[in-house]
Amino acid sequence: MMLVFPRESLSVYPKHLSPEYRSTVKRSPSKPLIIVPHTLSELTGPAFGHDAVQEGDHDLTKQHKGEPLGERIIVHGHVYDEDKRPIADTLVEIWQANACGRYVHNVDQHPAPLDPNFTGAGRTVTDKNGHYKFITVKPGAYPWGNHPNAWRPNHIHFSVFGQSFVTRLVTQMYFPGDPLFPFDPIFNSVTDEKARMRMVSSFDLENTVPDWALCFRFDIVLRGREQTPVNTEKH
Amino acid sequence: MSDITPSQTVGPFFAYGLAPHNRCDWKPNPGYDWKETVGADLVTPDASGQRIHIEGCVLDGDGKPINDAMIEIWQADAQGRYAHARGEKPRPNAKFTGFGRSATDKAGVYSFDTVKPGVVPGPDGKPQAPHIVVCIFSRGMLRQVYTRLYFADEAANDADPILALVPGERRGTLIAHKETRGERPVYRFDIRVQGDNETVFFDI
Fold first, then answer.
1. Does ipTM come in above 0.90?
2. Domain topology for A3-28+47-226
3. How many CA atoms lie within 13 A of B199 on its CB side?
4. Is A56 near chain B, with CB under 8 Å?
């Protein structure tokens, strides 16, 4: 089976220049991108074995001596292509703020406490059904300098690979019903509402573990669909 | 309308998760032991071919260094073969993945140690000159941008089918120039995200 990666699928992406998110103003290409055919260089991509991750990398609550503070949650879902075929054996990496909305990164100067028992980085490789699962704590909202009283909605950063280098995706997973959605220029840089809501996880009662942790589902759809057979017969 | 999941910016804080032991200067404490899955040194003991160092600065529209960018590269081995999952055929230097990741440091500089890729097949059976696909992520970029690095000392550049699609006056932004520094050849490849002499980015 040959997958193709139509450019039209990218129409739901944010524009490079989205001035409401100020940092895009000087960091977006100003000249038109040049359309090139997909050659072997684009149609191939890095492969990761299950040795890319270590036991426990997917559990962000067990990376230190004690358990992190905050609301323990399970985040899971499937990675699919555009035909809803599962993508097995693909690397999924996440990073996030702690429950107080503070990243372990030293550039983060938000005056909220660091948690000695929480780093906020995790990774896993999807199984044969394209499924992944993380255990973590719900990240807090935090302020940023984009505009007066700007706050980021709670989110987890995701990095996913998929079938080729053109399927590479870095995105953010949000939580349902966040009151900060209308005010966040990063979230709203995706102008199509349906597409935007695909970045919002759903509460998953079925996989919520009684007496232990709430579960959220976040399915990820990457570029790639089956090539439509070309009819070469002449009529 | 497509059903794909939209892209969002990598933000300013990715380093501790994605490139913890790289060039970036983020570490709040020396005890951080998160293993790096993808690094900036692609050279494996079994990799054949010429060892090279690639280095460059990532600059914004004001010409200021971008100190929180992440650069990923994807390339063929010295024989022009990609280590793709669906690549089926066993290869001699099988440990060479052809994939690397470097964050930029305070001065906006990224770097890789790798081997010079070989010629790979292109559209309509025409060969492509040795090149590396380069993907740039950063705070302020809501989606990644792709470019290509070609080598100044390759005569094959003149017949490359992708370079041929780039207007002549902008083609130079895709060419890495060789510098002599120690024993290993160093190829300099600056990336100008915007403005005068803006790097050519591809819509792929």
1. yes
2. Protocatechuate 3,4-Dioxygenase, subunit A (2.60.130)
3. 29
4. no
